[in-house]
Amino acid sequence: MMDELRELYQEVILDHGKHPRNFGSCEGCNHTAHGFNPMCGDTLIIYLNVGEDGIIKDATFKGKGCAISVASASMMTEILKGKTVKEAERLFAAFHEMCTKDDAEMPEGVDEDAIERLQVLSGVRDFPVRVKCATLAWHTMDAAVHGKDEISTE
Amino acid sequence: MNDAGNALADKQTPLSAGDNVRGAFDVEAVRADFPVLHQEVYGKPLAYLDSAASSQKPRQVIRAMDEAYETYYSNVHRGLHYLSQTCTDHFEAAREKVRRFLNAEKAEEIVFTRGATEAINLVAASYGRKFLKAGDEIVLTTMEHHANIVPWQLLREQTGVELKVAPIDDNGDIRAEDVIDLIGPKTGMVAITHISNALGTVVPVKQIVAAAHEAGVPVLVDGCQAAPHIPVDVRDLGADFYAFAPHKLYGPTGVGVLYGRYDRLESMPPYQGGGEMISRVTFEKSNFKKPPHRFEAGTPSIVEAIGLGAAIDYVETVGREAIAAHDARLLAYATRRLSEIEGLHIVGQATDKAAIVSFVTDWAHAHDVGTILDRAGVAVRAGHHCAQPTMDRFGLSSTARASFGIYNTEAEVDQLVDALHMVREIFG
């Protein structure tokens, strides 16, 4: 049992959960959205500064949540910086796959280094009720780039 | 209530050779009656500490419902035939059992709804739309479950009533005066919980009802957490309306109870329209039946009501005073053991409290705590407990909550404590 739990709560996750990176609002933010998980009451706000060339110059977040959702938001904001919105969406699709399927197939052209870093969160596969914790930040990012103010994982 | 129904209500669900509960309180005998408790989850013995969300069911309840479907099931209050008459007798006997359980004056004061939530919605909609108008005030407490907030907000949208909320202190205690101070000339209803589902606080309902009645204001009590834990006497409390959820009282889902003082119910229009609640229908006009049938449109939750009757028999066989004493022992033990854990904070330490312990930790979010406890076989609720204003009061978005029922043991509290040490080990 401890092994399985350690697999879910790996050091990297605990570290990002306790010391989230890119926490706060961002300068020149031009896309933002609120993410809400009605099951636990957790909320996240994602801030993005997307350039005219479609490149994400800065990504930050605020909010309250469990170790999984905070770590996921923290890692996502690190990974997104310098990526195009298109790349971000491809990563979202790939991340969603790996959090829900054992034999996830990665879409073509997805950033492999980023996928490797995100693998650490894929332990939620074995904890179905926690998948939404891991994907909340990504759903919220997706809402922000599509001009939606709010997203709920309901 | 017909005579056959009364006779059935007097006859408790018979105890057979396989029954374990025979009067004296013995938690192992009680546990033996609950089949679902005897299993392992993730290779660990199950410790079910989530009875405030929903309780498990004893075999006596499951058996009573099986027996209804297997031997006498039919629609009620409809047919002239044998099964319909027999089924109606059992259904009405369940109503009489609820009357006795609450010490209501008559069985006609007991309305079967689809749940406690529907019971509160019924009062808000029926009483509210007839008797309350723009500017009238509904007095609530900070600790209400969403089911005793949202129906009044819906009424606010329709009629313009206003909500007034009584505060609680940092311990989760509430003073009767703080509720009473909000009662004034514009108050149209006081709607308060008897026991907070998130904090376990017991509200001094009787004192509040007395003051409300002095001002001519009716009181609705949400008794969902009280019915399983403490003896409830609606006449002693003086409540005009009292709602509770049978599925938290070791009975089935799909049925709810609304007690309403008869003169109140009689003054109220129907909540829903349909069959069973009318005495005569033409396309010009319908005449409505008297309570409780006026409020029971459509085929009711027949077998669920019968299952509730069996649950009440079960609880009364175990003994309501004995249950209250068992709960108090477990609460004291759990409070002591949890207080010993460094970095764990109990949320809600009211002077008068039921067997519900909400807590947060310095090391981990309630959701992470819940996941780890689950893998250790311990089932708790983690979240806002459908009481977000209560969470807001403490600046929290969620807590973990252990809640106890008649079948829980001190060994299960120990299992919870051991699992919490594991959480600390992982996150510490």
UniProtKB/TrEMBL annotation, chain A:
GO biological process, one term: iron-sulfur cluster assembly
Domain of life: Bacteria
InterPro entries, sorted: NIF_FeS_clus_asmbl_NifU_N
Residue span(s) of domain NIF system FeS cluster assembly NifU N-terminal: 9-132
GO molecular function, one term: iron ion binding
Family: Belongs to the NifU family.
Alphabetical list of NCBIfam families matching this protein: SUF_scaf_2
Name assigned to this protein: SUF system NifU family Fe-S cluster assembly protein
Organism: Ferruginivarius sediminum
TrEMBL record, chain B:
Record bears the keyword Transferase: yes
Keywords for this protein: Pyridoxal phosphate, Transferase
Transmembrane spans: none
GO biological process, one term: cysteine metabolic process
Keyword Transferase: yes
Source superkingdom: Bacteria
Cofactor field: pyridoxal 5'-phosphate
EC number: 2.8.1.7
Catalytic activities: (sulfur carrier)-H + L-cysteine = (sulfur carrier)-SH + L-alanine
Molecular-function GO terms, alphabetical: cysteine desulfurase activity; pyridoxal phosphate binding
CDD domains registered for this protein in UniProt: SufS_like (cd06453)
Gene3D superfamilies tied to this protein: Aspartate Aminotransferase, domain 1, Type I PLP-dependent aspartate aminotransferase-like (Major domain)
InterPro entries cross-referenced by the UniProt entry: Aminotrans_V_dom, Cys_dSase_SufS, Cysteine_dSase, PyrdxlP-dep_Trfase, PyrdxlP-dep_Trfase_major, PyrdxlP-dep_Trfase_small
Chain ranges of the Aminotransferase class V domain: 48-416
NCBIfam families in the cross-refs: sufS (TIGR01979)
Family named by the database record: Belongs to the class-V pyridoxal-phosphate-dependent aminotransferase family. Csd subfamily.
Record's function text: Catalyzes the removal of elemental sulfur atoms from cysteine to produce alanine. Seems to participate in the biosynthesis of the nitrogenase metalloclusters by providing the inorganic sulfur required for the Fe-S core formation. Catalyzes the removal of elemental sulfur and selenium atoms from L-cysteine, L-cystine, L-selenocysteine, and L-selenocystine to produce L-alanine.
Protein name stated in the entry: Cysteine desulfurase
Organism: Ferruginivarius sediminum
Classification lineage: Bacteria, Pseudomonadati, Pseudomonadota, Alphaproteobacteria, Rhodospirillales
